[in-house]
Fold this protein.
Amino acid sequence: MSKRVLLYTLVLVLFMGLGIAISGTLTPQEQLGKQLFFDKNLSDPVGQACAACHGPNVGYTGPKSIINATIVVYPGAVHTRFGNRKPPAAAYAGDSPILYYDAVQGLWVGGMFWDGRATGWFLGDPLAEQAQGPFLNPLEQNNASPEVVVEKVLASNYQALFLQVCTDASLYYECIGRAIAAYERSKEVSPYTSKYDYWLKGQVVLTPKEQWGLALFEGKGKCAACHAAPVFTDFSYDNLGVPKNPLNPFYYEPEWNPAGKAWVDTGLGGFLESAGYDPAIYEPERGKMKVPTLRNVAKKPNPLFVKAYAHNGYFKSLHEIVHFYNTRDVLGSCSAKKFPLPGINCWPQPEVSENLNVSEMGNLGLSSMEEDAIVAFLKTLSDGYTP
Ligand code: HEC
Ligand code: HEC
């Protein structure tokens, strides 16, 4: 063997070893889930993967600054079609229980989506059930049927892995959902590598400001009442009175939204109504949205990148949403704005004014330095921190 060939062979072997080492951190099922999550062929027309709306570099939520700053809602594989909500994080969702009513607390808990409609009642796992939805949603990946998705997977370059993991042909589509859920729960997507996590293990210290923010988060700010550690959600639902986002393209899609501009996002209540529950059950839930995880809320590729917050992305910065919690009931209300502006000193009417949470927010009496400290604490929840 010539020296050059030897060198090339060595380099090749090294790379292969590296490849195995990297993929070796995932189980075959998680590895399959990863292939499915990033596969742009699993849409009609091709081009849209789950990652188009759940990007790793922003904590698996909307990865495009310009969209977050404006319409918030991501276009589907058919680019003229839009859903109606902001993509929540696909990370850290795996601990949400099967949707149930907790009679003691008088709260609905669990499920997936802002309105809980991926309940987990069918597969016994809300995350796996959720993962079966987007491939078939005409406003998202738009495939005609589960069989079409399975066919595409069988024709993919990870076919062998698929056949290794999914052995029962009658359960192929279910197996796809479960593999994606396994990947979303894996150490790669939900790694618990934030500064906060290293602080819990005693490996780093929080700055005095971050420490103060944590104390406010758990105390005067009342945040931990709903955003409970370690995932920073208790998987329940609440109506915070978030105003409408007038730029939501769903208002202008008569084919999918016959109500047009009069459409109201009724969240959990709307789902329970469509699922056939009595008004006595769904009316108290109208306007309530799932409490989202706060892990990675501040994670972004650069400081100028805009992220949108809440189910309709009305807020464009953490300062804005914290200010809203603090002052919703203190500042006067403004007439609905054509364009939501930062630094506002009044708030438009809530999108849904029934069932508003008035006991845990609205008038927290935080100073602007205290608001800043809470934001500083939220920034310690971004994964990928090196201690
Ligand atoms: C076109 C953008 C888009 C695509 C593509 C997409 N999603 Fe989503 N995803 C969303 C939106 C919007 C929501 C919230 C919808 C709602 O609440 O009604 C969501 C919700 C979720 C949730 C729920 C998280 C929670 O805490 O409730 C998970 C998990 C998720 N998506 C994973 C996926 C997976 C897996 C795929 C691919 C199979 C995918 N998404 C494809 C936009 C998208
Ligand atoms: C009563 C329960 C409750 C309390 C208390 C609460 N939150 Fe929330 N939080 C929610 C719910 C519900 C949402 C989603 C609301 C919506 O989309 O309409 C949310 C959304 C958020 C978001 C947006 C996350 C995203 O991905 O869009 C942030 C950030 C946030 N809360 C931070 C805080 C902070 C900081 C505090 C304390 C000052 C706090 N929350 C107190 C329930 C609560």
Remarks:
- Residues 88, 221-223, 225-227, 238, 240, 242, 289, 291-292, 294, 297, 309-311, 318, 321-322, 325, 357, 360-361, 374 surround heme C (ligand 2) (CB under 6 Å).
- Confidence is low (pLDDT under 50) at residues 10-23.
- The first helix runs from residue 3 to 23.
- The CA atoms of residues 29 and 179 lie 5 Å apart.
